[in-house]
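Sequence in, structure out.
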Amino acid sequence: MRLRLFDDDQFDYEALLALGAAYRRAADVGEVLATAARITPGGDAEAWFTAWTDLARRVRWEAEGSDARGRRVSAGEGYLRAAKYFATALVGVDATEDPGRLVPVFHEHRDCFERFGAASAPPAERVAIPYEGDIMPGFLFSPPDRSGPLPTVIVNNGSDGAITDVWSLVGAGAVARGHRVLLFDGPGQQSMLFLREVPFRHDWEHVITPVVDFLLDRPDVDPERIALVGISQGGYWVPRALAFEHRIAAAVADPGVTDVSTSWWRHIPREMRELWEAGERDSFDRYMREGIAADPASAAIWRWRSKPYGDLSPFDLFTELDRYTLAPVVDRITTPLLITAPDGEVFWPGQSEQLHDALPGPSELVRFTTDEGASLHCEPAGRAVFEQRVFDWIDERLT
């Protein structure tokens, strides 16, 4: 049993994630609770969006005041919290009457994160990772008072998390332990999706190999001590990349994901799956669109979850999802891999264990429980427990 702030599962999880972010100063417990109290517990999307954007703009205004007075620490912490609150607001934007506010508010979110990076000590470096004739944007954070080639942690985001999430969930803890940290937007993620409409891809090795190439060109990165951590759907992309990219010393999947599509099929009637398996494209699309249109809440979730895959019909989306499986490549993964297995995993229950059992190389399964306050997908409220276990494992392999 745990405390719930909202009846709506998504809003409740996002509020819990914001509370957990306070561990790394990306949120304030009082601000989160006071804002949550102003929103209908059942899940009013417009009230959610308005409350979090109002909070974000107030916090940003105060950070700007600290910045103008040369108070670098207060400014940086304020910008980080504002960035997190803008990102929290965007979770509900597709369910409002004006989803077009996503891009302008995303710009506000990213501007605050960039200001946080600039106020960090040392300042974060904005980087451009070469990618198929284009670039993937990112941020390289470094620990203070350390120079020369250092161990470096690549943080691989999931399907819809913001860059503030990868910072508070993994990046900040890695920097605190003396590692350089690379945060980046890959295809279908954040700026690559919202500003450039670049969709996901299942063959994530074509993303991680350019990232590793980029790091290996830098004299401040130790080429023998690169780790890769994937959160949420990154628990699929990381092991997928490891099947082909063998220059990584250690990796983490939080949680392990062997088949992304199961989180989608779980909510679809068996009869619909039979239509898809039979190749009945027109019937499948018609019934899916009728069902989505009949429920505004489901329609909003569909828009939010499906947009990273591109402008696909329902039939084509499930056909694309069918490619997101580790089955054809799992026997090629030899990099040491730590796999988290939290109680209450709702998207891919049991798949952490399946991945652990299928791996031919060294792996370890680490459990996070309800009793210790570290349950649920990506352990949103158990950050101290997560960091201690996961980074101790990483550090044993990088130092």
